[in-house]
């Protein structure tokens, strides 16, 4: 990604309290599912097989076995449909991608647990935005200006609506007066 696009992309990232997780970890991913007008969160539990991309486009793939059949899902890390990510256990692996698990069956598919994992239960600090005092002040000014602009727009809209309503009432009164004058 170019250095030009990084600040624009960083502004769009809304999730900052993501847990630290690596390839090989067993995770529970809470996925928002809409069925008609109902909405619910469904858990997808499995082993993280890969992580790829960076910034706003970062994705991770989770693999699990359902009824003896391997199921893999790729989730965008910053998607609003990914409600939660919870790390259940850390895996001891020496690869960046665990695609070799696709060929394995039964107990051979297991990943050894890493007992001294330091990242369990921690928030990924690299994603937390650290603003200096000047940046925080600038952000506050921009937010206040945006709120003021929005308030002015809604005020103008209300005034235009009231003016149109008054003109319609005057027109209706004039029309009613002209109708009575003819009789």
Give start-end ranges of low-pLDDT stretches: none
Number of strands: 5
Categorize the overall geometry: elongated
Q: From N to C, what is the helix and strand string?
A: HEEEEEH
Strand order of the largest sheet: 4-3-2-1-5
What's the main sheet like?
5 strands, antiparallel
- The proportion of strand residues reads 25-35%
How many DSSP helices? 2
Oligomerization? single chain
- Structural classification: alpha+beta
Amino-to-carboxy terminus distance: 78 Å
Helical amount: 25-40%
The whole-angstrom Rg is 28 Å
Please state the average pLDDT score: 86
Task: Give an overview of the whole structure.
- This protein has helices at residues 6-12, 133-182, and strands at 26-35, 38-52, 59-66, 69-76, 82-89.
- 31% of the residues lie in helices and 27% in strands.
- The protein starts with 5 loop residues before the first helix and ends with a helix.
- It is elongated, with a radius of gyration of 28 Å.
- Strand 1 (26-35) and strand 2 (38-52) form a beta hairpin.
- With 183 residues, the protein is α+β, with helices and mostly antiparallel strands.
- It is built from two helices and five strands.
- It has a five-stranded antiparallel beta sheet, with no helix packed on it.
């Amino acid at each position: 990604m170019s250095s030009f696009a990084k600040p624009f992309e960083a502004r769009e990232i809304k999730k900052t309290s993501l847990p630290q997780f690596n390839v090989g970890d067993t995770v529970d991913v809470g996925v928002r599912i809409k069925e008609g007008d109902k909405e619910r969160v469904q858990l997808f539990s499995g082993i993280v097989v890969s992580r790829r991309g960076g910034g706003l486009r970062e994705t991770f793939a989770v693999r699990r076995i359902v009824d003896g059949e391997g199921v893999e899902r790729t989730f965008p890390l910053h998607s609003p449909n990914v409600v939660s990510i919870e790390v259940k256990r850390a895996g001891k692996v020496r690869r960046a991608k665990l695609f070799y698990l696709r060929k394995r069956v039964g107990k051979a598919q297991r990943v050894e647990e890493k007992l001294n994992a330091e990242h369990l239960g921690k928030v990924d600090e690299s994603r937390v935005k650290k603003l200096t005092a000047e940046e925080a002040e600038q952000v506050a000014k921009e937010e206040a200006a945006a709120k003021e602009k929005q308030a002015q727009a809604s005020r103008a809209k209300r005034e235009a609506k009231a003016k149109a309503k008054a003109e319609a009432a005057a027109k209706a009164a004039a029309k009613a007066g002209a109708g009575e004058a003819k009789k």
